[in-house]
Structure formats: structure tokens, C-alpha cells
Amino acid sequence: MAASGRILARCLQLLRSKARAGVSTGDLDRAAERFIRSQGAEPAFKGYNGFPGSICASPNSMIVHGIPGDYALERGDVLSIDVGVELDGWVADAAVTVAIGRVSSVARRLLDTTEASLFEAVEQCRPGQHLGDVSHAVQRRVESDGMAVVRSLVGHGIGRSMHEDPQIPNFGRPGTGPELTEGMVLAIEPMVTAGGHEIRMASDGWSVYSLDGSLAAHFEHTVAVTADGGRILTPWHLDEDARNRTGARVETV
Ligand code: MG
Ligand 1 centre from 185 Cα, in Å? Predict the structure, then answer.
């Protein structure tokens, strides 16, 4: 899964560098598929329950599951990009939300809060902690920053299949739920809006929007529970230059 996750992280870094005004979400989808296949891996989303893309591309008030297509990014947009990669039968899943050019201060805060809530959740991924500790870490950070966690969409276990037990809500009480044990792998994915937590489904049967039209963000890592704590298997957050300078092992944090 770490090998699969490394390909995914590089794919997200590539998409991040390509996501700018004038580029369509379909362009990003084609770039992602080309890259993933060039690495000998497969785009895990393509064909999943009939999904047509290799990535989900969800702009602005769309939270998740956007079908890539003709939509051309504009300056001031935020775009959530979610990618799945399968290599040798093992799946990794990760997402980032990117700012297209200069964005509003609300959008900036939304991105910062959502990303921070993911890393606070990863810190809870230690043997002996409970799933509720992971969920609560997201909720605490998001709500203390005055934003809302989407309640009807959840993270998930991951491994041979993209979606395995347990479900991982982005809200919960500390000390509740299943105990985390070494070797579990979790796809933790805060989905956050700058407004309310309610959602609506679009008529395409895929795209999920905030009900009130508020901006949304989505950050995700695939994380293994190890004796040393959470090990991020999809290290899209590690900066390429730092990695080149230090030769750091990319799959660890
Ligand atoms: Mg996921």
C-alpha cells in the first residue's frame, strides 16, 4: 500500500502543479490517468460503481465525487481533487483541495482548517486509541474554527478494496468506537464546509454539494496504524525540494 500511495502522492503533486485558471477538470483527469498507468498502476476510481473518471474533481461548493469534464478552472476557485490508485492489488486513496490563484480569505481559512484537521486526526492513529478519537480530532479542529463537518459522508478502512470497514465519521466522541490496532489502515478524509453541514446530491447521481451553497474542502490521507503512530502512506504534503535535499523516506512522517 505504501508503494501504491507513493504513486498517488506524486500524482496529486502533479495535478496540483497543473491546476490553474483555464485548465479543465477533464485535462487533469487525463493527466492523472496517464501518470498512474505510466507507473504500472491503475486508477482505482475508473469504473468504480460506473464512475467515468480517474479522479474526482469537485469545484467550490461541490464537496466530493465530481465527474471531470469541460469545467475550466477560474481564478478564485477552490478545487477538491480525489484520486485512488491500485498497485498489485493494493489500494491507496487521497485528496487535496487546491486554491486556483488568489482566493477569498474564507476559502483560505477553509483550506487551512480542513488540512490541519486531517493531520490532527492522523496523530490519533496509535494502537490503543479509539476510532472516536480520530473522528473527534477532526470535529474539534473544524468546529473550533467556526466551520462545519459534513456528517453524511465518511472515511473508511482500506486495503485490498477501496472501501472496507470501519466507517470513519468526521465527528465523534473520544474513547468510543473500535480500538485501533497495529496494521489497520484507514482512509481519513475530513469534508468541511464554510457554512452548514447539510448536503444535496446533483442530478448526475454523483456530485455532492453543500446544501447552502457554501464553499467546501476535502483533504485525505491513507494512514497505517503502527507501533510508532500513524504512518502516512500517501505523502502528498511532502515538498519535492525538501525530499530531494534530505533524501527523506517519502512514505513516513
Ligand atoms: Mg476515501
Answer: 12
Give the fold, CATH level 3, of 2-250: Creatine Amidinohydrolase (3.90.230)
Distance in Å, CA 28 to ligand 1 centroid = 19
- Compute the CA torsion angle 125, 131, 136, 137 (nearest 10 deg): 10
Ligand 1 centroid from CA 188, angstroms = 7
Using the mean position of ligand 1's atoms as its centre, give its distance from the Cα of residue 192 in Å.
Answer: 14
Length of the chain in terms of residues written: 253
For residue 96, give the nearest of 126, 57, 130, 131 by alpha carbon: 57
Whole-number Å distance, alpha carbon 245 to ligand 1 midpoint, is 31
- pLDDT digit string (tens) for the chain, length 253 residues: 999 999 999 999 999 999 999 999 999 999 999 999 999 999 999 999 999 999 999 999 999 999 999 999 999 999 999 999 999 999 999 999 999 999 999 999 999 999 999 999 999 999 999 999 999 999 999 999 999 999 999 999 999 999 999 999 999 999 999 999 999 999 999 999 999 999 999 999 999 999 999 999 999 999 999 999 999 999 999 865 555 554 444 343 3
Q: Where are the domains of the chain?
A: 2-250
CA of 189 to the centre of ligand 1 (A): 6
